Amino acid sequence: MPGQTTSQISSFSFNLSRYLIFLTLLFFICSGGAVMAATRYVKPSAEIPIRSGQGTEYKILVVVPDGMKVEIVEENDPWALVRTPGGTEGWMLKRYLTDEPPLSEVVASLEAQKTNLMESEAEVRRKYDELVATYSRNEEELNTCILERDETNNRYLELQQDTADVIKIKNDLESRSQELQAARKQLSAVQEENSQLKRNSSIRWFLAGGGVLFIGILLGLLSCRSRRRKSTLY
Fold first, then answer.
1. Cα(65)–Cα(84) distance, rounded to whole angstroms?
2. Which among 59, 84, 150, 230 would be 20 to 30 A from 131, CA to CA?
3. What's the whole-number average pLDDT of the chain?
4. Closest of 108, 96, 88 to residue 42, by C-alpha
5. Cα 19 from Cα 13, distance rounded (Å)
6. Does residue 80 have a pLDDT over 80?
7. What is the 3-state secondary structure (H, E, C) of the chain?
8. Residues 79 and 57: beta-carbon distance below 8 Å
9. Closest C-alpha to 94, from 123, 73, 117
10. Is the pLDDT of residue 19 over 90?
11. Lowest-confidence range among 12-16, 99-103, 166-170, 188-192?
12. Are 41 and 98 in contact (CB under 8 A)?
């Protein structure tokens, strides 16, 4: 078991070393490609010849002006194999190349940036004006909403007051209705009592009339007897 562990560790270390070497080689290859694909500018000077080889004895293929953009294909100090925008490849001295773009290109870039900034400023100002207008409209709408809210609150308070008044009126009506019902009951009792009194009065008058009639008849009878007695005396 310890031997197997040592073997596995050695195998892992070997594979790791191979992997690191591969990554290192890949890094150098990519770095070299990046150098070859770099872009340079011809320094401001007299026109620079591009030759077919690394030396002044080689044929001049083309003469490039200062500020032209060329692509670095290969470097071999103090020479560099370059490719012009027209596709011509040749060798030129590296001292005539620089990473800095020409002044005319810098000025053009600054002019373009200025134009972009002015356009951006105009766009920002336009958006600002739109935002100000939108803010004004929103503020007006907010004020309108506040007024409507206050009016709604006032109407709500009025409705609450009206509701309280209606409830009070309803309670008063219920109280008056109860009083009216009680009065109707009292009136019915009084009417019933009055009817009873009327009936009792009719009976009394009937009895009184009957008594008077009876007394009249009795007096008539008594009067007839007294007359009879007088006639017999004569």
1. 11
2. 150
3. 78
4. 96
5. 10
6. yes
7. CHHHHHHHHHHHHHHHHHHHHHHHHHHHHHHHHHHHCCEEEECCCCCEEEECCCCCCCCEEEEECCCCEEEEEEEECCEEEEECCCCCEEEEEHHHEECCCCHHHHHHHHHHHHHHHHHHHHHHHHHHHHHHHHHHHHHHHHHHHHHHHHHHHHHHHHHHHHHHHHHHHHHHHHHHHHHHHHHHHHHHHHHHHHHHHHHHHHHHHHHHHHHHHHHHHHHHHHHHHHHHHHHHHC
8. no
9. 73
10. no
11. 12-16
12. yes
Mean pLDDT over 204-219 rounds to 78
Distance, CA of 124 to CA of 57 (rounded, Å): 60
The residue-averaged pLDDT of 143-156 equals 91
- Residue 17 tokens read as 């070393």
Q: Count of alpha carbons within 13 Å of 232, Cβ hemisphere only?
A: 6
Give the residue among 89, 61, 63, 92 at the shortest CA–CA distance from 76.
Answer: 92
Q: Which of 14, 20, 72 is nearest to 41 (CA)?
A: 72
Which tokens belong to 147?
């007024």
Q: Do β-strands 39-42 and 69-76 pair in parallel, antiparallel, or remain unpaired?
A: antiparallel
Between CA 125 and CA 119 the distance in angstroms is 10
Other Cβ atoms closer than 10 A to 191: 10
Contact 85, 68 (CB under 8 A): yes
Of 118, 67, 73, nearest in space to 91 by CA = 73
